[in-house]
Automatic annotation (TrEMBL):
The keyword Nucleus does not apply. GO terms for molecular function: structural molecule activity. Its main location: secreted. GO terms for cellular component: bacterial-type flagellum; extracellular region. Residues 5-142 form the Flagellin N-terminal domain. Belongs to the bacterial flagellin family. This is Flagellin. The keyword Acetylation does not apply. It is found in: Secreted; Bacterial flagellum. Flagellin is the subunit protein which polymerizes to form the filaments of bacterial flagella. Pfam families: Flagellin_C (PF00700), Flagellin_N (PF00669). SUPFAM superfamilies: Phase 1 flagellin. It comes from Simplicispira hankyongi. Keywords: Bacterial flagellum, Cell projection, Cilium, Flagellum, Secreted.
Length: 471
């Protein structure tokens, strides 16, 4: 090998290796001091891009979890206020029930109405003043609100609406409200009956007679959502008892709802009426019909709303008619019926087939607003009961919906927390420094630094060997 002094290749090589070890030492110290494997894009360009995308998701998920918690708080605020409204409505209902009692005087009912008015004002105050961060919740304006519960656009939960708790809105509902509705021509002959709501399919009520009791029982047994029915008492008015002077003593047969009764007929009108009264009431547990002597004739009543079917046969030659017993002519008489239906988005008509004379009733706004209730009369108290029941149904349904959305938010928060945790762990595997490996690299680099420095010094001494040739 030539002996040269202008170019010290060994020194250059030692310097290059020393520079490499210095860079490695600097990288190890930076990673150990920051705790990060990637401190700049040069450390791992692809890893940096991936970790930054993960950071965006992690930070977005953290905020989304806070948003969902805020959603829970909003729903709790609204639901708590609605609980207060429900309590006030329950108290108003108690007052309406009390007012409907015959023991109360006009002044008593006026005093009850004063409390109803105050409770109504309190409900309105709660409805108009309940807010969350300045957003009104119960005045009917809260609708189609979206909650951002994800890190990306479109990851939302929507609350379609919170029912208005204003007294001008409570008590009203979309549906039908038939009160004392005629069933048409009463009949004891059973046949297939259905009810069709809007554009839905016919709902079978079974094989029943056109009888208010049977119809209401079938509707309630079917469990049609939002629909309920009740039969009013059936009544057959009396007729003035006809004079009995021309009657030949004997027996007649009076039929009450299929049960035949033998009744003695004679020349005394009062006795005839008394005989019929005793005979009818003697089997009332079977027929469901009670007779009442109003002083002129006999009134027939079925408290459960069943049809009252009467028949008459003169089994002898008495010449008597039903009028001789104070009874109306033989016929089938039906009761009126009450049917309430709260539509769940349904439109159109509620149509009965096979019963009620195939009646059709349009679905529309029904009921009386709570703000208009007046229980200072018995009629007003009865109207209030119907309206308050509708208002409670609205409040309870809305509270149930708010409870469901709270549970959904809670589930969302749990999912966000789990996703955030897993993404953070994934980012950690990319960006965090492995201290065990880096401390080993640091020790290696430090030793190489010391050795490299020594080798540079040795290499710088090599050209001095040329001086031996010049002696």
């Amino acid at each position: 090998m030539a002996s040269i002094i202008n170019t010290n290749v060994q020194s250059l090589n030692a310097q290059r290796n020393l520079s490499t070890s210095q860079n490695s030492l600097a990288t190890s110290m930076q990673r150990l001091s920051s705790g990060l494997r990637i401190n700049s894009a040069k450390d791992d360009a692809a890893g940096l891009a991936i970790s930054e995308r993960m950071t965006s998701q992690i930070r977005g998920l953290t905020v989304a979890a806070r948003n969902a918690n805020d959603g829970v708080s909003l729903a709790q605020t609204a639901e708590g206020a609605m609980a207060s409204v429900g309590d006030n409505l329950q108290r108003m209902r108690e007052l309406a029930v009390q007012s409907a009692n015959a023991t109360n005087s006009s002044s008593d009912r006026a005093a009850l109405q004063q409390e109803v008015s105050q409770l109504s004002s309190e409900i309105d105050r709660v409805a108009t003043q309940t807010d969350f961060n300045g957003t009104k919740l119960l005045d009917g304006t809260f609708s189609a609100q979206q909650f951002q519960v994800g890190a990306n656009a479109g990851q939302t939960i929507t609350i379609s609406s919170i029912a208005s708790a204003r007294t001008s809105a409570l008590g009203k509902f979309q549906g039908i409200n038939l009160v004392n509705q005629s069933i048409g021509v009463a009949s004891d002959t059973a046949g297939a009956a259905t009810v069709t709501i809007g554009s839905g399919s016919p709902i079978s009520l079974g094989t029943i007679a056109n009888d208010a009791k049977a119809i209401s029982a079938a509707i309630n047994a079917q469990g049609i959502s939002g629909m309920s029915a009740s039969a009013n008492a059936t009544s057959v008015a009396s007729v003035a008892t006809a004079a009995a002077g021309g009657i030949t003593a004997g027996n007649v047969t009076i039929g009450i709802n299929g049960t035949n009764l033998t009744v003695a007929a004679g020349t005394n009108a009062g006795t005839n009426r008394a005989n019929a009264l005793a005979a009818i009431n003697g089997v009332s547990s079977v027929t469901g019909v009670v007779a009442t002597d109003d002083g002129s004739g006999l009134t027939l009543t079925a408290a459960d709303g069943r049809n009252i079917t009467t028949t008459y046969t003169d089994t002898g030659t008495t010449g008597a008619t039903m009028a001789n017993f104070g009874l109306a002519a033989a016929a089938t008489t039906g009761a009126t019926i009450n049917i309430a239906y709260t539509a769940n988005g349904a439109t159109g008509n509620v149509v009965f087939a096979g019963v009620m004379g195939a009646s059709s009733t349009a679905i529309g706004s029904q009921g009386t607003a709570v703000s208009a209730l007046d229980i200072s009369t018995v009629a007003g108290a009865n109207t209030a009961l119907t309206a308050i029941d509708a208002a409670l149904n609205t409040i309870n349904s809305s509270r149930a919906a708010l409870g469901a959305i709270q549970n959904r938010f809670s589930s969302t928060i749990n999912n966000l927390s789990a996703t955030n945790e897993n993404l953070t762990a994934s980012r950690s595997r990319i960006t965090d420094a492995d201290f065990a490996a880096e401390t080993a690299n640091l020790s290696r680099s430090q030793i190489l630094q010391q050795a490299g420095t020594a080798m540079v010094a040795q290499a710088n001494q090599l050209p001095q060997g040329v001086l031996a040739l010049l002696r």
